[in-house]
Amino acid sequence: MRPLATIGYQGATPGSFLRALQDARIELLVDIRAVASSRRPGFSKTKLAASLADAGIDYVHLRALGTPADGRAAARAGHHADMRKIFLAHMRTADAQDALADLVELVRSGRRVSLLCFEADPAHCHRSIVASMVREKIPVEIVNLIPDSEPDD
Prior knowledge:
CATH class: Alpha Beta
Structural class: alpha/beta
Number of domains: 1
Shape: globular
Radius of gyration: 14 Å
CATH topology: Cobalt-precorrin-4 Transmethylase, domain 1
Helix content: 40-55%
Number of strands: 5
CATH architecture: 3-Layer(aba) Sandwich
Largest sheet: 5 strands, parallel
């Protein structure tokens, strides 16, 4: 069974994040943030894609698999059940279903894929929901990567 990794960058440094991907031999990072910008240096779309490219890892942003604004607000407030409900409703939209189909094809391609979002705990992040939806369509083993939160050397 092929692996499907997930990773969150909360608490990670760019170096520890990249090491976690490299240690898992990830070939494609699929960014499923609705907004691919970050106040954390190194994790906005352009900078992240460039550092991944330098490491030989491809980058794709599937914005339609991101959590809507009200879901992100619920997650920030610690209302994870509300976030899940909002996100599941969002996933019934045509755009989200099209993006999910695109993701399934990327995973089917045989490359080692990881889903990216912010939240460190996969249990509180929509990326676990997306990974489970992929698993409903094709056999994958979901692996949650946890980057070190230590400073880079």
